[in-house]
Amino acid sequence: MLRERLMDAPADAVWALASDLEHGVPRFEPLVASARILRRDGDRLLLETRSPLRWRTIFDVVLRERFCWMQARGRLYVVGMATEEAPDGRTLFAHVEGVPRLGGGLLRPLIGLAVAHDLRSIERLARADLAGGR
Predict the structure, then answer these.
(1) Strands (E), the chain
(2) Alpha-carbon distance 15 to 89, whole Å?
(3) What are the structural domain ranges in the chain?
(4) pLDDT of 39-93, one tens digit each?
(5) What is the pTM of this model?
(6) Cβ atoms within 10 A of the Cβ of 14, count?
(7) CATH for the stretch 2-128
């Protein structure tokens, strides 16, 4: 499920939140209670996330300037994020999540709701951070 949103916040503020995998992601993603970088080698990371139910997921991550691709070990789930500055100073943010397995399409409506929620939360939190809320 790929969604894009034109956000009323500067790209730097949006990306600072979205790319902070350990602190930012748990703020906007309700299915991630905690995240911890286990290893870093340049733009490649190994990330451990825990759900509110304490389920553990390990992601292989590529994190570059305004681009992030995360693939769960076992290829159970993928997450992607990218952003660019729009000509009017707002931010175009793209977010994709999915289950790259046969039958993963059955989860599409739920994943779509989750992605839409994440986009709204990222914009709200980035604007609050700019206003001094964090």
Answers:
(1) 2-7, 34-41, 44-50, 56-64, 67-72, 78-85, 91-98
(2) 14
(3) 2-128
(4) 999 999 999 999 999 999 999 999 999 999 999 998 788 999 999 999 898 999 9
(5) 0.89
(6) 28
(7) 3.30.530.20
